[in-house]
What does this fold into?
Amino acid sequence: MADMDWGNQTTITKFLLLGFGDLPDLQILLFLLFLVIYITTLAGNILIIVLVVADQHLHTPMYVFLGNLSFLETCYSSTILPRMLASLLTGDRTISVSGCITQLYFFCALASTECYLLAVMSYDRYLAICKPLHYSSLMNTRVCLQLAAGSWVNGCLAITIFTLFMLQFIFCGPNKIDHFYCDSIPLIKLSCGDTRVIILLDFILACIFTLPPFLLTLTSYVYIITTILRIPSTTGRQKAFSTCSSHLIVVTIFYGTLMIVYLLPKLDTLRFLKKVLSLCYTVLTPLVNPLIYSLRNREVKEALHKAVSKYVTFTRNIENPI
Ligand SMILES: *[C@@H]1O[C@H](CO)[C@@H](O)[C@H](O)[C@H]1NC(C)=O
It folds into this structure.
């Protein structure tokens, strides 16, 4: 995309991403805060990927999807945080038009892939809890592979259509985006052409590509919860619930904050609140997912424990050979 010729199409070649520039005294503090968040996010998610790939016990559909989710979150936070960190550090808040559309593309593609992966993960839990006898035949390696691949393809497809439309845009000012990353609506607002088609397209694509995974997730959990409530013994209920509770928490945080931000009325007074809230699904979810999964999940904890003790014996053997 970078080698396309933007010069003769656009009168604006750079946007100003305002970010948190309205808090000048806090720039260094914010930089340190987001740096710590970014490093923790990368470390946590990469740790989960390594555990899922390395540990034989975690080679089940649920953990393969979790590995994919962690990989996705690693990319997801890397589309936003490094640029934000650089601009907090240097004070340079400009971003080129092509850079902005590239960021929009990756951010939206990964966000919609996340919707699909979360849906696939809840479908997997639905099969495990509501159809336990048929689980291994319904969720075999091939289906698992198809579902994971399907999530990535669908997520990228939707946004590619959208971005191809965006590429036709001419931006002629103003060039200020009051956000910390390039989101579609603020960007559409800055275009000087006829934006009705793209706003409609944005809406239709959002409906086609995010509503089905959302509804699938919701339906799965309605079935899961009714099934769990029908289990007679308390321990049985707790056991069934413990296999899906981490995922339910992750889904709730992701969709909850996403909905609050997009459904809040478009008032100027709410703009700062929205900016802070959108930190939840851009920065917070990738950070807390590995924590939720590793703290609440016995199998992940065991795998971590095994990996650590293996590493300790390994280094000990190196230090004291014999
Ligand atoms: C993602 O899913 C694919 C397909 O099921 C799988 O082969 C791959 O190992 C997964 N990636 C991770 C990091 O778990």
